[in-house]
Amino acid sequence: DTAVSQTPKYLVTQMGNDKSIKCEQNLGHDTMYWYKQDSKKFLKIMFSYNNKELIINETVPNRFSPKSPDKAHLNLHINSLELGDSAVYFCASSQGARGETQYFGPGTRLLVL
Amino acid sequence: ELKVEQNPLFLSMQEGKNYTIYCNYSTTSDRLYWYRQDPGKSLESLFVLLSNGAVKQEGRLMASLDTKARLSTLHITAAVHDLSATYFCASTPYSGGGADGLTFGKGTHLIIQP
Questions:
Q1: Which chain B residues are closer than 8 Å to A56 by Cβ?
Q2: Residue B75 class from Cβ within 10 Å (0-12 exposed, 13-18 middle, 19+ buried)?
Q3: What confidence tens digit (pLDDT) does each residue in A44-97 have?
């Protein structure tokens, strides 16, 4: 029973391409997140959705666009990929107000060539 | 802006020894999270500390929170090789509403040698 799943696990693509990463959670949570982990393992929040509404949009280039079709899904679309976008992208989910544990997906390893 | 600092960033220790990882954060918060990450893997939640003086223990790991000092510690007792991993602490701003993202420290890369 996978709680938070992401597809694909690996993504290798050329600069300038557009790609999407999908995330699904079966925990019944109402809040989902996207984090980026760079090559130095530093983790940074990108987006947060609560009940399908965007809550946080950190200083992320507008080439990145999250979409939440329902509470269980949060997808990330990236336009015009750049070398610097190479990273591991983690989806996470939590329930309710702040203080709740965030559960992370397995990550999507994106390599832009 | 909330900042979270961990130290040390790298720790090599022998099995059987005790050690502590420190996590300081810069602004008022009463939430502190500890995660573990194995190489190439996801983040696994270890502890959520939600009030001043909170202490939680799981096996050889014990975490505590002092909100007045803006400090959390992760103490490892009688380390074993299986605890080798990267440990992250994270927090959220006190003034934040729901759906706060976590601000992470840089992580402590822990190697436990026989």
A1: 99-101
A2: middle
A3: 999 888 877 887 777 899 999 999 999 899 999 999 999 999 999 999 999 875
B-chain CB neighbours of A42 within 8 Å are 104, 106-107
- Taking the CA of residue B88 and the nearest CA in chain A, the distance in Å comes to 9
Each residue's pLDDT tens digit, B8-64: 999 999 999 999 999 999 987 778 999 999 999 999 999 999 888 899 999 999 999
Q: B49-67: string of b/e by CB count within 10 Å (b at 16+)?
A: beeeebeeeeeebbbbbeb
| CB hemisphere CA count around A60 (13 angstroms) | 21
Q: The tokens of A36 are what?
A: 């980026």
Interface check B41 vs A, CB under 8 A: yes
Mapped onto helix, strand or coil, the DSSP state of residue B95 is coil
Report whether A4 contacts A93 (CB < 8 A). Answer: yes
